What we know:
Layout: E1 4-8, H1 12-23, E2 27-31, H2 35-43, E3 47-48, E4 61-64, H3 77-85, E5 88-90, H4 92-99, E6 113-118, H5 123-136, E7 141-145, E8 162-166, H6 169-172, E9 182-185, H7 193-196, H8 199-211, E10 217-221, H9 225-234, E11 243-248, E12 257-262, E13 265-270, E14 273-279, H10 289-304, H11 309-317, E15 327-332, E16 335-339, H12 346-354, E17 359-363, H13 373-376, E18 382-388, H14 392-397, E19 403-407, H15 409-419, E20 425-428, H16 441-456
Parallel strand pairs: 1-2, 1-4, 2-3, 4-5, 6-8, 6-9, 7-8, 9-10, 10-11, 11-12, 16-20, 17-18, 17-20, 18-19
Antiparallel strand pairs: 12-13, 13-14, 15-16
Helix pairs in contact: 5-10, 5-11, 15-16
Amino acid sequence: MGRKVGVLGLGRSGLAAAHALREGGAEVLCWDDSEPARICAVEAGFELSDFAKGGVDQIETLITSPGIAHLYPSPNPHIAAAYTKGILVDNDIGLFFASLGGSEWDGFEVTPRVVAVTGSNGKSTTSALIAHLLDAVGKDVQLAGNIGRGALDIEPPLDGGVVVLELSSYQTELARALTPDIAVFTNLSPDHLDRHGGMGGYFAAKRRLFAEGGPDRAIIGVDENEGQFLAGQLAQGPTDDRVIRISSGQKLTGPGWHVYARKGFLAEFRKGRQVASIDLRKITGLPGVHNHQNACAAYAVCRSLGLAPKVIEAGLRTFGGLPHRSQIIAQSNGVTFVNDSKATNSDAASKALAAFKNIRWICGGLEKEGGFDALNAQAGNVRKAYVIGREAAAFALKLDVETEVCGTMDQAVRRAMADAEDGDVVLLAPAAASFDQYDNFEERGDDFTACVTANLS
């Protein structure tokens, strides 16, 4: 390569990008505002350069980590310096797609494929489910992006291999190359609005995966207006089966290719005829309507890759689910304990509430965009809410259910367990970010699990 490339942000994806660039022959200069991260980079043999203080003059391209703002609410000073100098700004996802393929692919019988999944909710479960279904039939499959390994940290795909990427809006909004073979849009609800300058910017970031990349097949959730709009823009007409429309809760009709879940059954229709049907109600790894939408998306991907319906159904039944996403962690005296710490916004939490009955609901944290209408619409499933977080009292006032302000996770778990009766579900679905009390949603979910375990022993 021989180029000088800057890497800004030295977390998982940043370090993976730095190593990949160095292996490709680039001279890599690194920076992170965190001193411990800079020390790790130096220990790995990388040179440091403060791009905001003249270091940008030494590089041709700046690779930035997805969590660093480049436009809204204001550009990071390092990125602003690059823009001022006309330096190319990209991220690891752009690098991944730009570097994909090579002469070794000429000898492959089956060209490797890339499946990219984006949307507000369900990305992780959908991506993991796709990988599970492909692995179950012996495919060489790697899971990366916003889940698992960094995109530049995986092995080169083999003959017939599949790479499944979960992509957040932070990743899609900046990547200079986006060329998946199959792209999935799960749904859209308000999230990260400050980062994207509102819902329009947020949707535009997701839409780039389809508009910039031109995937061979697009699988679009059409339960929101944005999904309907996107599917309509991509399809050349009602019979264009390059677009597969998916839904959870509504029956899809017409001559195109449709996969939908309704009343617990997944149905596939093509050219106006039903092709397959799967009973999702007893698949324990996919509880609730929101997970049925995930199943529809994964099913559509696997059908696009040539898997038969019965083979997909068998794989669905062996899927164990993901940690922190409607994860059943314990059952005792008729009470079920469910960890859905990943439900960090109102829409995700409302879908978790819709999945269960007789809920003792642990919620609260750092409030995000989206309001409380969706949450309060599920009030009939909630027996009582136990509110945590620094702003627990204010959060509780916005709920249309009986509440108890607990503050800490331990107190919330103990109070919910004391009140719980046979048939109840103690559900952690915070509807809020974790950063007022935890470093991330995983730490919050682990704390919930630890509190449940301690109080059951």
